[in-house]
């Protein structure tokens, strides 16, 4: 979809809900904070397994889980 088409939808008071998959949206250029978390071994192993299954890094899995539950 081109920018002028998006502008036309907004100008007409429309919504992009039928066009955009909002579940895949990300906020970019947000300041970040480094955290250190100690996990029991079983949770660490579960995190590693989930990351491998999803094709992500453990840090990305943590970000997704926190975002899903707190955002």
UniProtKB/TrEMBL annotation:
GO terms for biological process: regulation of DNA-templated transcription. InterPro entries: Ribbon_hlx_hlx. This is Uncharacterized protein.
């Amino acid at each position: 979809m081109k920018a002028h088409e998006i502008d036309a939808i907004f100008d007409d008071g429309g919504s992009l809900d039928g066009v955009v998959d909002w579940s895949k949206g990300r906020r970019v250029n947000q300041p970040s904070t480094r955290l250190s978390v100690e996990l029991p071994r079983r949770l660490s192993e579960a995190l590693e397994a989930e990351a491998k299954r999803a094709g992500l890094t453990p840090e990305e899995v943590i970000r997704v889980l926190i975002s899903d539950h707190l955002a």
